[in-house]
Design a protein that fits this description.
This protein is mainly β. It is built from 5 helices and 27 strands.
Length: 444
């Protein structure tokens, strides 16, 4: 059964309705002429002098989407692309009822009769539909009113659609009527406009349906979005909480903002909840603090405050709401004094060799590592050098490394401060009581 035939089926039912009305009211006797009902385009009806006949023409000139049904059963595919519903294509049909006459006043008589029939039949009931086109589900024999060429309309299932089909008159402005007849390319004849609503074209494809819901839990709670404005850090207990200082693994982070406190709270770093969960977190309305895990790689990371919700029977933790991501940087830490090996003096008096360092956290394959050397001197023209690590150190197959070897060349003999930069994040320097940088250092 193809429900796409329902547009044509509606037109055939309207034709049958008008034809029955003309017969029952003896339209042929009134006009003294044979009267027919057609559904042709207006430009296909002969209107030349001597050939024009008395007839009513019901022509479907436009379709439009029905707004009441347009979003029914949507969406009809789930996230996996599986069909979960068969939403109908719901359309309204717009018709033009036109009268043609072979003699004076025939058009007036026929248009009046046709409009009266449609006025007296505001809906198309199932019996009228079965009478006009039959029902292949009920009988193998379509309606005897159908010509042989149109017997396929009995397969449309129009009488089985859920919504009732209604006929309502439409008042078209004269300008719209003029445009229609100009588009038809036909001579104007007296006409009346009607809208038939709604026609449902449906699919019978198999769908994936869920099991019925046994019980419903409805929760109405105001969501107050947590907001993180600042990221501060503390190197260890008792140390000052500082904004902007270099952050190392195992530091304690302090997130400051608004609406941060909640009955249940979690912290996500790079989309993963931190170890220890709520037991590792101290929360207040404007501040949340927690210890950083020790497995974060050096470089940029994002942190979120998450407020889960208890829902269900029994209650279980659900996603809830979370703050926008706030960025922070984990710096690499040189854990042992750097050493040098294979140092030799070049012809220009500068040095070449290898500097060896031990770093935490481990450098991951693909990260860019840069050695930074700054001469320790009060001279404003102090020398500075940078050297990149050879990526071959990651091995084959590649793996994370904590022991770094970086070759240098063209360096003047002197004492240098040593920093390591991993993906743009630099290792911190130690300073003395006067605030002067003193470590880590190496003398070449």
């Amino acid at each position: 059964m193809s429900t796409a035939l329902r547009i044509a089926a509606v037109t055939q039912v309207l034709k049958d309705l008008l034809n029955d009305g003309l017969i029952n009211n003896d339209a042929s006797g009134i006009t003294q002429n044979n009267v027919t009902v057609t559904s042709l385009p207006p430009d296909k009806i002969p209107v030349d002098s001597g050939t024009e006949v008395s007839q009513l023409n019901i022509y479907m000139y436009q379709t439009s989407f029905n707004q009441g049904w347009r979003n029914a059963a949507l969406p009809f595919f789930n996230a996996k692309g599986e069909r979960v519903a068969n939403p109908p294509l719901a359309i309204d049909l717009h018709y033009l009822l036109t009268a043609y006459g072979s003699a004076e006043l025939h058009t007036d008589i026929l248009l009046g009769l046709g409009m009266h029939f449609l006025h007296e039949t505001p809906t198309l009931d199932k019996e009228a539909i079965k009478k006009a086109i039959g029902n292949v589900q009920v009988s193998d024999n379509p309606s005897p009113n159908l010509p042989d060429a149109l017997k396929f309309l009995s397969q449309s299932g129009l009488d089985e659609q859920l919504d009732q089909i209604k006929i309502t008159p439409e008042q078209l402005p004269l300008e719209e009527i003029s445009k229609l007849w100009a588009a038809f390319g036909a001579k104007y004849r007296p006409c009346a406009a009607y809208k038939v609503t709604v026609v449902l074209i449906e699919s019978n494809k198999s769908v994936k349906t869920g099991l019925p819901v046994k019980a419903r839990n409805i929760y109405v709670q105001p969501f107050k979005m947590p907001v993180v404005d600042k990221v501060l850090s503390q190197s260890s207990a008792g140390q000052p909480i500082i904004e902007g200082q270099k952050i190392l693994n195992l530091y304690r982070l302090f997130l400051q903002g608004n609406a941060l406190k909640n009955e249940i709270i979690n912290i996500r770093i790079d989309g993963k909840e931190i170890a220890g969960g709520p037991a590792n977190i101290i929360s207040e309305a404007t501040e949340v603090s927690f210890n950083l895990p020790d497995q974060l790689s050096a470089g940029m990371h994002e942190v979120q405050v998450v407020h889960p919700r208890l829902m269900g029977t029994p209650e279980v933790v659900h996603e809830g709401i979370s703050s926008q991501s706030k960025l922070f940087v984990i710096s690499p830490d040189i854990t042992q004094p750097p050493t040098s090996s294979g140092v030799e003096t070049l012809s220009n008096g500068t040095l070449a060799g290898t500097i060896e360092l031990k770093i935490n956290p481990a450098v991951q394959p693909g990260q860019r590592v840069l050695l930074l050397l700054n001469e320790i001197t009060n001279d404003v023209a102090a020398r500075a050098y940078s050297f990149a690590m050879d990526k071959a150190q990651f091995g084959d197959p590649q793996s994370a490394i904590t022991d770094i070897e970086i070759e240098f060349s063209g360096v003047k003999q002197a004492a240098y401060l040593v920093r390591l930069q991993v993906d743009g994040a630099e290792s911190p320097l130690g300073s003395d009581a006067q605030g002067k940088y003193i470590s880590p250092s190496i003398t070449l």
